[in-house]
Specification:
4 domains; 17 helices; phosphorelay response regulator activity; ATP binding; single chain; EC 2.7.13.3; alpha+beta; Rhopdopsin 7-helix transmembrane proteins; Beta-Lactamase
C-alpha cells in the first residue's frame, strides 16, 4: 500500500532543494576561500535529503534498504566537507593536502562499502525493518559498534569545524562574527537531530530528522551568504593576511613557550637559522648562542653573530612577553633583526667622525698656521694666494666643526630642559656675529623675555646657529640684514576654544636666497652625484627640526629668505 505523501518527505525535499541552490551558487564562487568545500557540503546535504525523501515513500523492505546506499553517500560527504569548509573559511586551507583528504574520507568510504554489501550490513546494524511513522516509510534497527563509531567520527569532524568557527567568532571583527555566528547556529540543528537519531531517544525515534534540520542549515547559511557576503568577506583574509604579514616583515619572528621550547618560526627566522640543526620543538638554546639565550630569559635581548647562507651576519634579538587574557605569561616572541648593514654603517660613521673631529681639525690647524705665515712674508700677489688658501682651509675646518657639533647634538638629544628662548637666541647671534669679522650684519631680535620652551638646548642652539650663520655668511651685501622673531601659535582645541600649542621661530634675511637645488636636496632627503648640497648647514637644520617638531619651512622670494620652524 502506498499512502499519501508524508510531511516528512516534504521536509526532506525542501531541505534538498535549498541545499542544491546553495551548492550551485557556491560552485559559481569557487575561487573564494572555502567555497569549493562549501559546495561539496551542500551537494552532500542535497543527496542525503533528496535520497531520504525518496526512501520515505519506499515501504518495500528490499527497496528501502537499497535507498540507504545513496543516503550514505550524502552522509559520507557532509562531515569531511564541513571540516574542509571550516579550514578554508578560517584561512587554514594549507592543511587540506591530498593525504589529509584521503584520511578524512577513508572511514566514510569504508562505511559506504559496508552499507552497500548485504553480507557486511550486520557490521553496522541488525534487525533492519520498516516501521511507518506519519505515513512515511521510516525504519528501525539495532545499531552495532560500527554504527556508533561512524557517528562518533562524524561528530569529531563536525566538532573540529565548529571549534574553528568559534575561534573565528571570538577573534575577528563584528562583520565576520555575524556571518560566523550564522554558520555555527546553522550547523547545530542537524548535529542535534543526528545525535537524537543515533542514540534513539525522544519521540518518533524511527524518524531521522537530520535531513529536515538541514533545511534550517540551508536557510541560515543562505542568510550568511546573501546578508553578510559569506564568500566576499571571510576570516581567511584576516588570518592569512596576518600570517603573510609576519612572513613578509623582513625580520625573523620566533615564538617560544614557557618551557623555552620553540613552537613556531616565520619564514625569515627559518632562513636565518637554516645553518643550524635545530627545529620546531627544540629548546631555544639550540638556536642561539649560550650568552644570548641567557639574555632572552631575562627579557633584555641582545646581539649576536650567526652564519647565514655562508656569510657572517649580526642579528639583534628583541623579546616580548605573550600574555593570556588574564595577564598570565604563556610564552615569548623574539624578533630577530638583521643589523649587519646598520652596524657596518655605524662603524663607517664612527671612523669618518673621528677623521673629521681629530685628523682633519689637527691637519687644518697646521695648514692655517702656514698660510698665515706665507701671507705675512710674501709679496702682495703671492700673499693673495696664501690668503685664499687660508679662507678655503678655514671653511673646511668649519665643516669639520659642524660635523662635530652634529655628533654632540645627537649625544644630548634625549635630554630636555626648560629653556629661556631670548637667552639662547641672543647667545647664538653674538657667536655668529663674532665669527664674521668681515661682515657688519644688522641683526634685530624680537623674542619675548618670558617665553620659555621645554626642549633640548643643544639641538635648538645647533639649528639656530646654522640658520643665522647661513643668513649672514651667504649675503654679499656690505651690511646683511637679519631678523629673528619668536611668537606663540594658537590652534583650535577641537571644542571651539583656542589654546597655546607651538612656539614659532622665524629667521628672515635680505640675501640672494637659498638656491632651489640646495633646498631640493634637503626637502627630498637624498643626495646623488648630480644633485647634492654644498655643505652640512641645511642638513643640520632639517635633522634638528625633525627632533624639535615638524620639518622647517623655507620661503624664498626676491627680497630674501625666511626660515620658519616650530617647537
Amino acid at each position: 500500500m502506498l499512502p499519501g505523501f508524508s510531511p516528512l518527505a516534504f521536509g526532506s525535499l525542501l531541505a534538498g532543494g535549498t541545499s542544491l541552490a546553495l551548492a550551485l551558487y557556491a560552485w559559481r564562487e569557487r575561487t573564494e576561500p572555502g567555497s569549493t568545500a562549501f559546495a561539496l557540503l551542500m551537494v552532500g546535504s542535497t543527496v542525503w535529503s533528496l535520497s531520504y525523501a525518496v526512501a520515505l515513500t519506499a515501504f518495500d523492505p528490499g527497496t528501502r534498504v537499497l535507498m540507504e546506499v545513496p543516503i550514505e553517500v550524502g552522509k559520507a560527504l557532509v562531515a569531511p566537507a564541513w571540516l574542509a569548509f571550516a579550514l578554508g573559511y578560517t584561512g587554514r586551507g594549507e592543511y587540506l593536502t591530498r593525504r589529509t583528504v584521503a584520511g578524512l574520507v577513508a572511514f566514510p568510504a569504508a562505511t559506504l562499502v559496508v552499507v552497500s554489501l548485504p553480507a557486511l550490513r550486520p557490521l553496522i546494524w541488525t534487525n533492519y525493518r520498516v516501521t511507518p511513522t506519519l505515513g512515511a516509510a521510516t525504519v528501525s534497527y539495532d545499531p552495532t559498534l560500527w554504527h556508533y563509531a561512524h557517528a562518533a567520527y562524524g561528530y569529531v569532524l563536525v566538532g573540529a569545524g565548529m571549534a574553528l568557527l568559534v575561534d573565528a567568532l571570538a577573534s575577528h571583527t563584528r562583520l565576520y562574527r555575524r556571518q560566523t555566528l550564522a554558520l555555527v547556529v546553522g550547523s547545530l540543528f542537524p548535529t542535534v537531530a543526528h545525535v537524537k537519531r543515533t542514540f534513539q531517544f525522544g519521540p518518533l525515534v524511527a524518524v531521522d530528522f537530520t535531513p529536515m534540520a538541514l533545511s534550517v542549515t540551508g536557510l541560515t547559511f543562505g542568510y550568511a551568504l546573501f546578508r553578510f557576503d559569506l564568500f566576499d568577506l571571510v576570516p581567511a583574509t584576516s588570518y592569512r593576511g596576518r600570517r603573510g604579514a609576519i612572513d613578509d616583515l623582513g625580520v625573523g619572528v620566533v615564538i617560544v613557550a614557557n618551557d623555552d621550547r620553540v613552537v613556531e618560526l616565520n619564514e625569515e627566522a627559518k632562513r636565518l637559522f637554516g645553518g643550524t640543526d635545530a627545529a620546531v620543538g627544540d629548546p631555544l638554546a639550540a638556536f642561539l648562542p649560550s650568552d644570548v639565550d641567557a639574555e632572552m630569559r631575562t627579557g633584555d635581548g641582545g646581539t649576536f653573530d650567526l652564519d647565514v647562507d655562508g656569510h657572517r651576519r649580526t642579528l639583534e634579538a628583541v623579546p616580548s612577553t605573550i600574555d593570556d587574557p588574564r595577564g598570565s605569561p604563556v610564552g615569548r616572541t623574539i624578533v630577530l633583526n638583521d643589523i649587519t648593514e646598520r652596524e657596518a654603517r655605524r662603524q663607517r660613521l664612527d671612523v669618518f667622525n673621528r677623521v673629521l673631529r681629530h685628523n682633519l681639525r689637527n691637519e687644518m690647524t697646521v695648514v692655517l698656521g702656514y698660510a698665515e705665515l706665507l701671507a705675512e712674508s710674501l709679496s702682495d700677489e703671492e700673499a693673495r694666494y696664501a690668503r685664499t688658501i687660508h679662507e678655503r682651509s678655514t671653511a673646511l675646518a668649519d665643516l669639520g666643526e659642524k660635523a662635530r657639533g652634529f655628533e654632540e647634538m645627537l649625544d644630548s638629544a634625549d635630554v630636555t630642559t626648560s629653556v629661556a628662548l631670548d637667552d639662547v637666541v641672543a647667545e647664538v647671534v653674538t657667536d655668529v656675529v663674532d665669527d664674521a669679522p668681515d661682515a657688519d650684519p644688522d641683526v634685530s631680535l624680537d623674542v619675548p623675555s618670558e617665553l620659555t620652551v621645554e626642549t633640548n638646548e643643544q639641538v635648538l642652539t645647533t639649528v639656530l646657529s646654522a640658520v643665522v650663520d647661513n643668513a649672514v655668511t651667504h649675503n654679499d651685501g656690505p651690511s646683511p640684514s637679519v631678523s629673528v622673531t619668536a611668537r606663540t601659535a594658537t590652534t583650535d582645541g577641537g571644542d571651539g576654544d583656542s589654546r597655546v600649542d607651538d612656539v614659532v621661530i622665524e629667521v628672515e634675511d635680505d640675501g640672494p636666497g637659498i638656491p632651489d637645488d640646495e633646498l631640493g636636496v634637503v626637502t627630498e632627503g637624498e643626495e646623488t652625484p648630480l644633485t647634492h648640497g654644498s655643505g652640512l648647514g641645511l642638513w643640520l637644520v632639517q635633522w634638528g627640526c625633525r627632533w624639535l617638531g615638524p620639518d622647517p619651512e623655507f620661503e624664498v622670494t626676491e627680497n630674501g629668505t625666511t626660515v620658519r620652524f616650530r617647537l
